[in-house]
Amino acid sequence: MYDPDEVVHLPGMSFKPNYRQWSGYLKAGAGKFFHYWFVTSQRDPLKDPLLLWLNGGPGCSSLDGFLSENGPFHVNNDGATLYENEFSWNKIANVLYLESPAGVGYSYSDDKQYATNDDQVADDNYRALQSFFLKFPNFTQNEFYIFGESYGGIYAPTLSLRVATGGALKTNFKGFAVGNGISSFALNDQSLVYFGYYHGLFGEDLWRDLNENCCDKGVCNFYNNTAEGCAIAVGQAFRIVYESGLNEYALYLDCAGGARSQGAYQRTMFHLYRNYREHWKKVQSVGGAPSLGEVPPCINSTAQMNWLNRGDVRKALHIPDILPAWDICSDEVGALYRTLYPTVKDVYEKLLALGLRALVYNGDTDMACNFLGDQWFVEQLGQKATSPYQRWLFDDQIAGFYQQFGNITFLTVKGAGHMVPQWAPGPSFHMLQSFLSNKPY
Amino acid sequence: MYDPDEVVHLPGMSFKPNYRQWSGYLKAGAGKFFHYWFVTSQRDPLKDPLLLWLNGGPGCSSLDGFLSENGPFHVNNDGATLYENEFSWNKIANVLYLESPAGVGYSYSDDKQYATNDDQVADDNYRALQSFFLKFPNFTQNEFYIFGESYGGIYAPTLSLRVATGGALKTNFKGFAVGNGISSFALNDQSLVYFGYYHGLFGEDLWRDLNENCCDKGVCNFYNNTAEGCAIAVGQAFRIVYESGLNEYALYLDCAGGARSQGAYQRTMFHLYRNYREHWKKVQSVGGAPSLGEVPPCINSTAQMNWLNRGDVRKALHIPDILPAWDICSDEVGALYRTLYPTVKDVYEKLLALGLRALVYNGDTDMACNFLGDQWFVEQLGQKATSPYQRWLFDDQIAGFYQQFGNITFLTVKGAGHMVPQWAPGPSFHMLQSFLSNKPY
């Protein structure tokens, strides 16, 4: 264990944790330092698996995963005090939260150059992991899993491939999981149009336009269709989903700040419907160029931001004084980021061929990375179905549906949005338990 | 005002109402007596509109509408005390709750013969209305609207046509509204299959089966397809929706009693997918004949049932001692009921031709009468669209979407289930206000 990083006291914490925690920096390359926060398992740290958690964006911080989703404690609305999370994932696992890439949250690089891309992030994360195991060599033998959410749908498999095939780092790597991940830009955009219509967001007129302009003999291309009429119709559809004031991360939850406060094309969306950016000129006539708004839209992160930016909290977490204020997402990292993988199909195929286990889970009311796109993605991997598509239960209620395809599972979490552990904590914990123990859901 | 029926005291009521209420019986035919409960408006009873509220089933009681949905007070979980409903519809309207037909709730007929059908119910309701206006002649001049929910999708327009064209009854009839109504059995069943797949309830295998067996050149018939393979696939789909333990009335709400306590084909569903009953023999191989369960499934009505069955409550409501206990739905009425209208398209067309106003609204997470079937129904009326399909707001949040087609509006309530005023009280009240005042939503 690396003593200097140990967190021995936290402002606002009135309970005594039955686990240890460390916060500090991992070297991710020359002059590049990734902030990590590591919590040991509340059960049996020696035997329980080790889990890496990565939020997406690109440009958003994994501390949101810690403080709002599956961490051992969350921040009260006062922005000053903490409360325990009954369904914390560290009840059964050692969890490493990593702020990645440099420029995100409290991670930085000496040269402040924050342009990066998918392969670079995977390489940097891989080096950060090596740095972690140098600090915590005791955890080399624990079963190891990599979890990514949202744009972590790219991070998790690309990093997993390096861990599984890399030379220097020796771990007991077992598999990876992706929550509401972007797995294929084409499938994500294509499925979103269906999702929108069948959830009542579009009228018949727009649906007719979409079908007449984007489809041929029943086969539709809503993704990179070059027909101008299609680009216009899809632009309209996407504007309703992303700019009308709906909570794109959880259709049935309110939009923090109200529907009218939001209504701008979001930079986080650049990476989702980037094919349509090229068509904006064409669609000027029906809406005009998009402007930037809050990132992420409709989500209120004030409390965790206030807490993380307190001087005493930064000190307790060993954050250098010279670093700027923590923000949930970095606009700069997001804007400068270059996507290299339009789909991670090949990456998954390699990982599955290596015998690794994978879980693709989706809160089914999310529209940023909707469940259907990921369902199609998993099915198109061509793995043989080894179970029917079936319900799973939590607390004697249907918590969602899942299907097993050999070593990979596709699973939905009913009624949950983009941040599954935040909005369905009990079911997600059950899901985690089943996945880690390789038992039925 | 009819004095003997006035409700002057109610057990469990600790607040003083600023409205008057009556409970008693309306004559609906020879020896047929429908129980009504009438509450005046909290605003201006003389000028405010009069609204008739009908729950569906067939066989379910409109007192569920009163005590769980839009009435001035609801029953606490103790089954003994009452609390005020902030969004009661009688804040702006005089509301008449009618238990219909005979055999439902506290309504009865002397001969206890409870077989009936759509036309008979409309005739009986029409006579009950005449009986109401005889007791309450003061309300003849108020604007009058008929609201129906669920199977009330048949009751409301068929009764409206009698009111609009009948001779004896003189009212200031303005229009009708239908909430999550059954408007066309074909469209309801057809749309439900799409709804299920695009909400993540079916896997790709079943979706492929459905498409391969029920569709030809992209045109699908999931409703009364005679192909055996299609009947089997649709049967599987409907079993997942209605029998797997999901709350069919509100997909994202829990099923009261748990998913395992329910799982039987429900009698309330007889009238929804009756075409498939004929195919049950064929599909024995994949599931067996359905059995009966709780009606309505997943809904907990214990509190209101306990309260309504108290001796002192019955007495306060002027219920004869000889009547049996009140139940939320009558299995007998449901089982003996004969549907005559596979669609109420003609009825709507006649009503719209008479210049009446109509509102078809749907909580968009209901699967008993899903929004898409009603959206298609309204569009197929062929009225010219007079507004785009657009969002509407409540409390600065998107509360749903709507489109105007001349005198008829189709409107969704986002995230609400079958019982819209129960699960989205604020938005429903706003909707009611806009509809009654004929203003934008």
From TrEMBL, chains A, B:
Transmembrane segment boundaries: none
PROSITE patterns the UniProt entry points to: CARBOXYPEPT_SER_HIS, CARBOXYPEPT_SER_SER
Primary enzyme class: hydrolase
UniProt keyword terms in alphabetical order: Carboxypeptidase, Hydrolase, Protease
GO biological process, one term: proteolysis
EC number, as in UniProt: 3.4.16.-
GO molecular function, one term: serine-type carboxypeptidase activity
Entries under Pfam families matching the protein: Peptidase_S10
Family per record: Belongs to the peptidase S10 family.
Name of the protein: Carboxypeptidase
Gene (UniProt): LOC115805161
